[in-house]
Amino acid sequence: QNVFNMVVEVPRWTNAKMEIATKDPLNPIKQDVKKGKLRYVANVFPHKGYIWNYGAIPQTWEDPGHKDENTGCCGDNDPIDVCEIGSKVVCSRGEVVKVKVLGTLALIDEGETDWKIIAINVEDPEAGNYNDISDVRRMKPGYLEATVDWFRRYKVPDGKPENQFAFNGEFKDKDFAVNVIKSTHEHWKALIAKKTDGGEINCTNLTVSGSPFCCSEECAKATVDAAPPCKAANPIPPEVDKWFYYQKN
C-alpha cells in the first residue's frame, strides 16, 4: 500500500534538531559535530524553521559506501528523511505516524546523496486526495518550489554554499520514491546483519533475531536503567528567532 512508519524528529515551524554524530572516516565534515548537541536551523526568509513535519523512516540506511546509480554520489550515513505535508500543522517530536509516500527529491548535501521523501499522514483528512507528487503540485501550489528553495539555502547562514540537487531539482514520482526506500531498507538489512561495515554505528537491537547484534531483553533493560536521568532543557538561544535574508549574487 506504499505506507511506511515515520518517526517525527522536527515538528513543523520549529528549528531544533538533535545531531547524534559519530566520527565518519568517509565524511570528515561530520567529525566536528558535538555529540548530543542541539543544532538550530536558521530562519531563511520567508521560511520559519522546518516547513513540514520532518523525520525519518526506520530500518533504512543511506550507505556511505554505496554510490547511488541515479545521483553518482554515496549515501549520507543516515536513515532516509521524510517531509510530511499534511494539514496537521505540528506533530509531536518522537511521534510515530503512518505516511503515504508521494514522491522524492534528490538533495546533494556536501557531496552526499540525501533523499527527501515527500509524504502525507494517512490519517490526514485530505490524504485520500493525494496519490502521487503531481497531486501535491496541483493541490498545494508553491509547496514543492518552497521545499527546493528551503533545502537549497538552509545552510547558507552557516557560511556554507548552496546545496545542489540531482535531476535539476525535479521531484521523482511515487514509484521511484518507493524503490529508493526499498533500496535503503536492503542496505539497512546488510548493516544489521553485519554484512557491511557500519563504522561506529551502534546496531544493538532487540527484535532482529538473525542479527549478530541482537541482545536480550534483560541486557536492554540494564542499559536503560543505567542511563542518567534526563536533564532539564536549556533555554532556546535568542538568535534562533532571528530572520536571515539572503540575496543570490
Features of this protein?
single chain, 249 residues, alpha+beta, Inorganic Pyrophosphatase, five-stranded mixed β-barrel, two-stranded antiparallel sheet, 4 helices, globular
Give a structural overview.
About 6% of the residues have low confidence. The protein has one domain: Inorganic Pyrophosphatase, CATH 3.90.80. Helices cover 19% and strands 22% of the residues. The strands form 3 sheets. It has a 5-stranded mixed beta barrel with strand order 1-5-6-8-7. Strands 2-3 form a two-stranded antiparallel ribbon. The chain is globular, with a radius of gyration of 18 Å.
What would you call the shape? globular
Helix content: 10-25%
Tell me the radius of gyration: 18 Å
CATH architecture: Alpha-Beta Complex
Unreliable stretches covering 5 or more consecutive residues: 21-34
CATH superfamily: Inorganic pyrophosphatase
Which structural category do the helix and sheet elements fall into?
alpha+beta
What's the SSE pattern? EEEEEEEEHHEHHE
How many structurally independent domains? 1
What top-tier CATH class fits best?
Answer: Alpha Beta
